[in-house]
Amino acid sequence: LPGLHVLAIAFALEVSVGKTNTVTALNNSNVLLPCTFATCIGFQDLVFKWYFNSTELIYHGKIKSKTTEPTVVWHNPRVEFVGSTAKKDVNISIVLNNVEFSDAGKYTCHVKNPKERNAQTNATIFLTALGVVETDNTVTLIIVGVVGGLIGLLILFMLVKRVVLFIIKKVQDGKKECLVSSSGNDNTENGLAGSKAEQKAPPKA
Protein backbone atom coordinates (compact mmCIF):
# COMPACT_ATOMS: atom_id res chain seq x y z
CA LEU A 1 0.00 0.00 0.00
CA PRO A 2 2.90 2.46 0.41
CA GLY A 3 3.33 2.24 -3.37
CA LEU A 4 -0.22 3.46 -3.89
CA HIS A 5 0.43 6.43 -1.60
CA VAL A 6 3.47 7.47 -3.68
CA LEU A 7 1.44 7.04 -6.88
CA ALA A 8 -1.33 9.31 -5.54
CA ILE A 9 1.25 11.98 -4.60
CA ALA A 10 2.84 11.78 -8.07
CA PHE A 11 -0.48 12.39 -9.86
CA ALA A 12 -1.69 15.13 -7.51
CA LEU A 13 0.29 17.83 -9.37
CA GLU A 14 -1.02 18.55 -12.85
CA VAL A 15 0.39 20.97 -15.44
CA SER A 16 -1.47 22.01 -18.59
CA VAL A 17 -0.86 24.23 -21.63
CA GLY A 18 -4.51 24.23 -22.68
CA LYS A 19 -6.55 22.34 -25.26
CA THR A 20 -3.92 22.54 -27.99
CA ASN A 21 -0.18 22.21 -27.64
CA THR A 22 0.67 24.33 -30.69
CA VAL A 23 0.83 28.11 -31.07
CA THR A 24 1.44 30.13 -34.23
CA ALA A 25 2.85 33.66 -34.18
CA LEU A 26 3.78 36.22 -36.81
CA ASN A 27 7.33 37.47 -37.04
CA ASN A 28 7.93 40.54 -34.77
CA SER A 29 4.68 39.97 -32.83
CA ASN A 30 4.16 39.02 -29.15
CA VAL A 31 2.83 35.56 -28.34
CA LEU A 32 1.22 34.11 -25.21
CA LEU A 33 2.59 30.74 -24.06
CA PRO A 34 -0.12 29.46 -21.70
CA CYS A 35 0.47 27.23 -18.69
CA THR A 36 -1.51 26.43 -15.55
CA PHE A 37 -1.04 23.96 -12.74
CA ALA A 38 -3.33 22.41 -10.14
CA THR A 39 -2.69 20.38 -7.00
CA CYS A 40 -5.05 18.59 -4.67
CA ILE A 41 -3.08 19.20 -1.48
CA GLY A 42 -1.87 22.75 -2.04
CA PHE A 43 1.68 24.02 -2.48
CA GLN A 44 4.47 25.69 -0.55
CA ASP A 45 7.55 27.40 -2.04
CA LEU A 46 6.62 26.05 -5.44
CA VAL A 47 9.19 26.51 -8.22
CA PHE A 48 8.29 26.84 -11.90
CA LYS A 49 10.53 27.19 -14.93
CA TRP A 50 10.15 27.64 -18.65
CA TYR A 51 12.62 26.01 -21.04
CA PHE A 52 13.20 26.50 -24.74
CA ASN A 53 14.01 23.26 -26.62
CA SER A 54 14.41 21.41 -23.28
CA THR A 55 17.73 22.95 -22.26
CA GLU A 56 17.64 26.76 -22.49
CA LEU A 57 16.11 28.36 -19.37
CA ILE A 58 14.04 31.43 -20.30
CA TYR A 59 12.04 31.99 -17.08
CA HIS A 60 12.43 30.96 -13.44
CA GLY A 61 9.82 31.88 -10.84
CA LYS A 62 8.63 30.98 -7.32
CA ILE A 63 5.30 31.02 -5.51
CA LYS A 64 5.47 30.99 -1.70
CA SER A 65 1.84 30.00 -1.12
CA LYS A 66 -1.67 30.24 -2.52
CA THR A 67 -2.12 33.67 -0.95
CA THR A 68 0.96 35.22 -2.55
CA GLU A 69 1.63 36.28 -6.11
CA PRO A 70 4.45 34.63 -8.09
CA THR A 71 7.89 36.24 -7.90
CA VAL A 72 10.58 36.18 -10.57
CA VAL A 73 13.99 34.64 -9.86
CA TRP A 74 15.39 35.13 -13.37
CA HIS A 75 14.03 35.71 -16.85
CA ASN A 76 15.11 36.33 -20.40
CA PRO A 77 14.63 40.07 -21.22
CA ARG A 78 12.17 39.21 -24.00
CA VAL A 79 10.00 37.08 -21.71
CA GLU A 80 7.23 38.65 -19.62
CA PHE A 81 5.28 36.86 -16.88
CA VAL A 82 1.49 37.28 -17.07
CA GLY A 83 0.32 34.68 -14.54
CA SER A 84 -1.52 34.90 -11.23
CA THR A 85 -2.53 32.77 -8.23
CA ALA A 86 -6.06 34.23 -8.15
CA LYS A 87 -7.81 31.24 -9.76
CA LYS A 88 -8.19 27.58 -8.82
CA ASP A 89 -5.74 26.57 -11.57
CA VAL A 90 -2.71 28.75 -10.92
CA ASN A 91 -1.70 30.59 -14.08
CA ILE A 92 2.04 30.66 -14.80
CA SER A 93 1.80 31.78 -18.44
CA ILE A 94 4.44 33.91 -20.15
CA VAL A 95 4.53 36.21 -23.16
CA LEU A 96 7.41 36.03 -25.63
CA ASN A 97 7.98 39.48 -27.16
CA ASN A 98 9.20 40.27 -30.68
CA VAL A 99 9.01 36.73 -32.02
CA GLU A 100 11.78 35.79 -34.42
CA PHE A 101 12.00 32.82 -36.78
CA SER A 102 14.70 31.35 -34.52
CA ASP A 103 12.14 31.24 -31.65
CA ALA A 104 10.23 28.43 -33.35
CA GLY A 105 10.50 25.25 -31.32
CA LYS A 106 9.47 23.48 -28.12
CA TYR A 107 8.62 25.36 -24.90
CA THR A 108 8.35 23.39 -21.67
CA CYS A 109 6.54 24.60 -18.56
CA HIS A 110 8.07 22.76 -15.57
CA VAL A 111 6.64 22.79 -12.02
CA LYS A 112 8.12 21.42 -8.76
CA ASN A 113 6.13 21.37 -5.50
CA PRO A 114 8.13 20.72 -2.27
CA LYS A 115 4.87 20.20 -0.35
CA GLU A 116 4.23 17.06 -2.43
CA ARG A 117 7.62 15.52 -1.58
CA ASN A 118 9.19 17.55 -4.41
CA ALA A 119 6.77 16.15 -6.97
CA GLN A 120 7.46 17.66 -10.38
CA THR A 121 5.87 17.52 -13.77
CA ASN A 122 5.76 19.52 -16.99
CA ALA A 123 3.78 20.27 -20.14
CA THR A 124 5.06 21.19 -23.58
CA ILE A 125 3.88 23.63 -26.22
CA PHE A 126 5.24 24.07 -29.75
CA LEU A 127 5.66 27.50 -31.34
CA THR A 128 5.65 28.10 -35.08
CA ALA A 129 6.88 31.49 -36.30
CA LEU A 130 5.38 32.78 -39.55
CA GLY A 131 5.84 35.90 -41.64
CA VAL A 132 7.50 37.44 -44.64
CA VAL A 133 11.23 36.93 -44.73
CA GLU A 134 12.97 40.28 -44.78
CA THR A 135 14.74 40.71 -48.11
CA ASP A 136 18.09 42.36 -48.56
CA ASN A 137 17.68 46.03 -49.56
CA THR A 138 20.23 45.56 -52.34
CA VAL A 139 18.07 42.91 -53.99
CA THR A 140 15.01 45.17 -53.66
CA LEU A 141 16.89 48.11 -55.19
CA ILE A 142 18.08 45.92 -58.08
CA ILE A 143 14.53 44.71 -58.76
CA VAL A 144 13.14 48.25 -58.60
CA GLY A 145 15.97 49.47 -60.84
CA VAL A 146 15.38 46.75 -63.45
CA VAL A 147 11.61 47.29 -63.50
CA GLY A 148 12.09 51.07 -63.62
CA GLY A 149 14.65 50.67 -66.41
CA LEU A 150 12.30 48.48 -68.45
CA ILE A 151 9.46 50.98 -68.03
CA GLY A 152 11.83 53.80 -69.00
CA LEU A 153 12.95 51.88 -72.12
CA LEU A 154 9.33 51.22 -73.07
CA ILE A 155 8.45 54.92 -72.75
CA LEU A 156 11.58 55.88 -74.73
CA PHE A 157 10.69 53.35 -77.44
CA MET A 158 7.16 54.76 -77.71
CA LEU A 159 8.48 58.33 -77.93
CA VAL A 160 11.04 57.38 -80.60
CA LYS A 161 8.34 55.51 -82.52
CA ARG A 162 6.05 58.56 -82.49
CA VAL A 163 8.87 60.86 -83.58
CA VAL A 164 9.88 58.48 -86.41
CA LEU A 165 6.25 58.17 -87.57
CA PHE A 166 5.90 61.97 -87.44
CA ILE A 167 9.08 62.44 -89.52
CA ILE A 168 7.95 59.81 -92.07
CA LYS A 169 4.56 61.55 -92.39
CA LYS A 170 6.24 64.94 -92.91
CA VAL A 171 8.58 63.50 -95.57
CA GLN A 172 5.63 61.87 -97.39
CA ASP A 173 3.62 65.11 -97.23
CA GLY A 174 6.64 66.98 -98.63
CA LYS A 175 6.96 64.54 -101.54
CA LYS A 176 3.25 64.96 -102.40
CA GLU A 177 3.65 68.74 -102.47
CA CYS A 178 6.67 68.40 -104.76
CA LEU A 179 4.76 66.12 -107.13
CA VAL A 180 1.77 68.48 -107.35
CA SER A 181 3.88 71.59 -107.94
CA SER A 182 6.15 69.89 -110.50
CA SER A 183 3.09 68.62 -112.41
CA GLY A 184 1.73 72.17 -112.60
CA ASN A 185 5.04 73.54 -113.91
CA ASP A 186 5.32 70.85 -116.57
CA ASN A 187 1.82 71.58 -117.82
CA THR A 188 2.52 75.29 -118.10
CA GLU A 189 5.85 74.91 -119.79
CA ASN A 190 4.83 72.21 -122.28
CA GLY A 191 1.54 73.89 -123.16
CA LEU A 192 -0.55 70.93 -122.16
CA ALA A 193 -4.30 71.05 -121.56
CA GLY A 194 -5.14 73.31 -118.70
CA SER A 195 -1.92 75.35 -119.14
CA LYS A 196 -1.49 79.09 -119.78
CA ALA A 197 -0.31 78.41 -123.35
CA GLU A 198 -3.82 77.33 -124.30
CA GLN A 199 -5.36 80.59 -123.14
CA LYS A 200 -3.48 82.71 -125.77
CA ALA A 201 -5.36 82.41 -129.06
CA PRO A 202 -3.25 82.61 -132.22
CA PRO A 203 -3.65 85.94 -134.12
CA LYS A 204 -6.13 85.79 -137.00
CA ALA A 205 -4.77 86.63 -140.40
From TrEMBL:
Residues 180-190 have a biased composition (Polar residues). GO terms for biological process: cardiac muscle cell action potential involved in contraction; regulation of ventricular cardiac muscle cell membrane repolarization. It is found in: Membrane. It comes from the Eukaryota. It is a single-pass type I membrane protein. InterPro entries: Ig-like_dom, Ig-like_dom_sf, Ig-like_fold, Ig_sub, Ig_V-set, Myelin_P0-rel. Its main location: membrane. The chain crosses the membrane at residues 139-160. PANTHER family: MYELIN P0 RELATED, SODIUM CHANNEL SUBUNIT BETA-4. The gene is Scn4b. Residues 2-126 form the Ig-like domain. This is SCN4B protein. Residues 1-18 form the signal peptide. Residues 180-205 are annotated as: Disordered. PROSITE patterns: IG_LIKE. GO terms for cellular component: voltage-gated sodium channel complex. Pfam families: V-set. SMART domains: IG. Keywords: Disulfide bond, Glycoprotein, Immunoglobulin domain, Membrane, Signal, Transmembrane, Transmembrane helix. It comes from Setophaga kirtlandii (Kirtland's warbler). SUPFAM superfamilies: Immunoglobulin (SSF48726). GO terms for molecular function: sodium channel regulator activity; transmembrane transporter binding.
